[in-house]
Design a protein that fits this description.
The complex is a heterodimer. Chain A is mainly beta. Chain A has one helix at 67-70; strands at residues 10-13, 16-17, 22-30, 33-35, 46-48, 52-60, 77-82, 91-97, 99-105, 113-121, 131-142, 146-147, 151-152, 159-171, 177-185, 193-197, 206-217, 220-228, 235-243. In chain A, 2% of the residues lie in helices and 54% in strands. The radius of gyration of chain A is 20 Å and the shape is globular. The mean pLDDT of chain A is 91. By secondary structure, chain B is of the alpha+beta class. Chain B has a single domain, classed as STM4215-like. Chain B has 2 helices and 7 strands. Classes of the chains: A mainly beta, B alpha+beta. The interface between A and B is medium-sized, with 17 and 13 residues.
């Protein structure tokens, strides 16, 4: 297997594309063991604990681009990483984070760093999946309605599972608005129906994660972004999709 | 986004630094004249630019990524032509000029086009040659330059 360069990686935080300010990422999911060893067990005995996830970023300081990230300290949001860069269906790692820790640092011999920005996910809820290992279905800047190409599930067929989709708006429209949804179909070229509908309409930078309870997810998935208005404003957006 | 390297600008800015009693030449002022004027600091024609290193700092391609570039620039100080009298008085004058040059380089750490400009070394003081092969008393100054080209 050939190695794949990570240089084209895309990193989106609450709608902000910080790829060209990020120098490193690590995405960790851990299941800590709970020691339940009894006196007569004769061997250490553990049960799996509650999973937790965190994503760590190192970034260079950029007063314009990273101030918005610094403002996230202690807050919640969505973080999506596309390790290989944009191609339809490329793997993407996404996590709804519940907390952010930041430690700034500087050194006279190098650039100012926003080092070890830690995004944590530690709360057990029905909709909390930790780091979702999914697929990127859209990453583009558009000026009118865009109908994406269907992406076939890697299993080659439909699945019955819960799913979620995360939308990042990284370039907002001044006056036009967009209705953005993930659709699914049994055939590539037609018959698409709404699977996930977002409420964000492209008028502001931000992110939104929508979770759908378990059900049939047809073989093909695509993104439809339908414009309202004729100003020709540029919408920059990305959509990550995942199913269990 | 595009990558921009400021090497000619930095060379020009260095030539504009003011060192008492010394003339600093730009890269377009290197000539094949028979003899250089005394007390001249000039880009070393062989090995002026060396030890280039480029580090990729962030994700991105086609110039969207952040880069750090470092390299050495070496300048040669020509005090007086070899064979001229170098008595204790003129030797002390040469040392004074070398100190003056070092002080100016160490003071002016930020010239236009460079993020950082540092004096990285001074060679042994002794005979040096100009592009025409003439010998002088002098030495080499090596600078470490840091640029953020993207």
């Amino acid at each position: 297997m050939a190695k794949i360069s990570s240089k084209s990686g895309i990193i989106l935080i609450n709608g902000y594309n910080v790829s060209s300010n990020a120098s490193q990422y690590t995405a960790n999911t851990a299941v800590p063991p709970n020691d339940v060893t009894g006196f007569t067990d004769g061997w250490r005995n553990n049960l799996a604990g509650t999973p937790s996830s965190e994503i760590n970023l190192n970034m260079v300081w950029n007063a314009t681009a990273t101030n918005n990230i610094i403002a996230l300290v202690g807050s919640a949001g969505n973080l999506t990483i596309v390790p290989e860069g944009w191609t339809l269906g490329s793997r993407s790692l996404s996590m709804g984070f519940l907390h952010t820790d930041i430690s700034n640092s500087g050194d006279p011999s190098g650039p100012i760093q926003i080092g070890n920005v830690k995004f944590s996910n530690y709360k057990t809820t029905d909709t909390n999946e930790g780091i979702e290992n999914g697929w990127i279905l859209a990453h583009d800047d558009i000026e009118t309605t865009q109908t994406g190409t269907g992406f076939v599930d890697p299993s080659g067929g439909a699945v019955t599972a819960r799913c979620s989709a995360t939308l990042h708006i990284w370039a907002a429209c001044a006056s036009d608005t967009y209705a953005i949804e993930v659709q699914h179909s049994t055939t590539l070229g037609s018959g698409y129906a709404t699977l996930v509908a977002f409420t964000m309409n492209g008028s502001a930078i931000g992110s939104e994660r929508v979770v759908v309870a378990s059900g049939t997810i047809n073989k093909y998935r695509r993104v439809l972004a339908t414009v309202t208005g004729s100003a020709g404003n540029t919408l920059g957006y990305s959509v990550h999709f995942w199913h269990a | 986004m595009t990558v921009a390297i400021n090497l000619p600008t930095i060379a020009e800015q260095i030539s504009r630094l003011s060192v008492e009693g010394v003339t600093i030449l730009d890269i377009d002022a290197i000539t094949t004249q028979s003899i250089l004027a005394p007390y001249t600091l000039a880009p070393r024609p062989d090995g002026w630019f060396s030890n280039l290193s480029v580090t990729v700092d962030t994700f991105g391609t086609l110039g969207t990524e952040k880069l750090t570039m470092t390299y050495n620039l070496t300048y040669r100080y020509f005090h007086t032509a070899l064979g001229n009298q170098l008595n204790f008085a003129s030797y002390a004058h040469m040392i004074d000029n070398i100190v003056n040059i070092a002080e100016v380089f160490m003071t002016n750490d930020t010239v236009t086009g460079a993020i950082d400009l540092r004096l990285a070394g001074i060679s042994d003081i002794g005979p040096v040659t100009d592009p025409a092969g003439n010998a002088y008393h002098g030495c080499d100054f090596t600078m470490l330059v840091t640029e953020y080209p993207a």
